[in-house]
Amino acid sequence: MNSLRVMAWIFLVAFLGFLLYVGVWAGRKNKSGGTGAEVEYFLGGKSTPLIVLAMSYAASAVSAGSFIGDPGMMSTIGWPYFWLVVGVVPGLVLPGYIVIRKMRVQAEKYGSLTLTEYLGDRYRCPFLKYYLTIVITICFLFMLVSQFKGAAALLETYTGIPFKVGLIIMLAVVVFYVNTGGLRSVAWTDFFQGCFMTVMCVMMVVVAVYKVGGMHSLEATLADKWPEALYISEAGPTQADGTVVGWMGIISLITWGCTIMFCAPHITSRYLALPAVHKKDVAKFSMISMVTGFLFNLMFICGLCGRVIFPDAEADYLTVTMSSQLLPPILACVCMIGFFSAIVSTATSILLVIGQSIGRDLYGGLSKKATPEKQVRVTRYATVICALIVLLFNMVNPPAFLQIFIYLGLSGIGSAVFMPLYGGVLTKKGTKLAAILSSIAGPAMYVIWTVPLGLSWVSGMGVGPLAALVVYCVVTWIENAVKGLDQVMIDWADGFKDVAENDTYMARKHA
């Protein structure tokens, strides 16, 4: 066993031990918290420090994609793919800064603890909550498949652990500390993992650029060997997976980054968990998220550098190959923990959201015997079952391209949630029917665009939200023009206004 593998084992055991410790600590903290069992488990008692939630927000958003999948895509497409960063970095901050405060005030009024519960309450529509819960569960399972595969492949490369054994290790660790500590353990581990990820990003980018002789030398090499990589956009369907980043793809990537990223439930849960949402707090949260997100997305550059240094390396594992081949063992192990942290931070957040959706939104909404304690228990059962489904899928047929699976999942969820969320926060005139139809139109258009029409999944990333926007606005305008404004719904949308008509809905909700 070489020195890298020995050191990798030491780092891995220490890291996994730390995750388990945080899970146990968070579980004890939840039991001694001053709020209800469901608030402690789902939102960390709304007492997690702002800086921890901000780092958790950024770490959960980027996942293995920014460190493994996206650099791999960059190495096969070139600079046109960097337009995604142009959309994602501001997309992590600007929409949230616009929406956070009002959404949180409304959620407090309704007693909502999850994104889907908030949307169902905002439009007084249980169907919307149940429908979105099903969409989120299905789409997030796709994303979890990619996260588990990435973790297992990473462990196999660094430690020699067989792929299937790595899958089992990933399942055991993730399920344990999600079930034990809920959001509190997820957020705190994300914070420390984010520190590793930041160090890894800076180190990898500096080393990669140095190895190719600087950015000028990189551009010169690409111009000589792969001139298409320097184009602003792709000219045609040059990729084996059908990826085309033409002008429509560029617009779609920016649109997707500025709209869909914010709508992901595993990210918005941090807004609901913030201790306070004063303007100063929101600004601080947004600034930390933006800086961290920018640093994480610098890893895209490693994709181009890796293409020059290791032209024959597999795209999905290019950055892993670079870290193990270019760095001394101890620094390579730091990168291993950084990669693993990126995967685990997103996987735990996604798994928690799936569990919440089933335990809180489905079981809690449909069963009259669903006490807070039972909701938490069902959530834990759901996380175990979903993790086992993902494990079996990876055992039988792991996906070929990690990042495509991630974007398929996010695009499906985001196009369904986009307009109900934005419309529910930014206008009081949005109607229940508009929210329902837009949440169906977004994913439907994305599927039609990419499957029957066979068009690029990249351009489809922007078409789904556009369809949802058009449907929401048109249906809202028609309903309000024909029926007139619903004053009860307008008052209900005001987070600071309580009216007698709303008491009936709240009584039914908590019956």
From TrEMBL:
Q: Where are the transmembrane segments?
A: 6-27, 48-69, 81-100, 130-148, 160-179, 191-210, 244-264, 285-309, 329-354, 378-396, 402-421, 433-451, 457-478
Q: Reply yes or no: does the keyword Ion transport apply.
A: yes
What are the BP-aspect GO terms?
sodium ion transport
List the catalytic activities from the record: L-proline(in) + Na(+)(in) = L-proline(out) + Na(+)(out)
Enumerate the subcellular locations listed in this protein's record, separating them with semicolons. Answer: Cell membrane
According to its record, how does it sit in the membrane? Multi-pass membrane protein
**One GO location term (cellular component):** plasma membrane
The UniProt keywords, alphabetically, are:
Cell membrane, Ion transport, Membrane, Sodium, Sodium transport, Symport, Transmembrane, Transmembrane helix, Transport
Any one Gene Ontology MF annotation carried by this entry is: symporter activity
InterPro entries the UniProt entry points to: Na/Glc_symporter_sf, Na/solute_symporter, Sodium:Solute_Symporter
- Per the UniProt record, one Pfam family is SSF
Give the matching PROSITE patterns: NA_SOLUT_SYMP_3
Q: Does the record bear Heme in its keywords? A: no
Q: Which family does it belong to?
A: Belongs to the sodium:solute symporter (SSF) (TC 2.A.21) family.
Record-given protein name: Sodium:solute symporter family protein
User: What is the species listed in this Swiss-Prot or TrEMBL entry?
Assistant: Emergencia timonensis
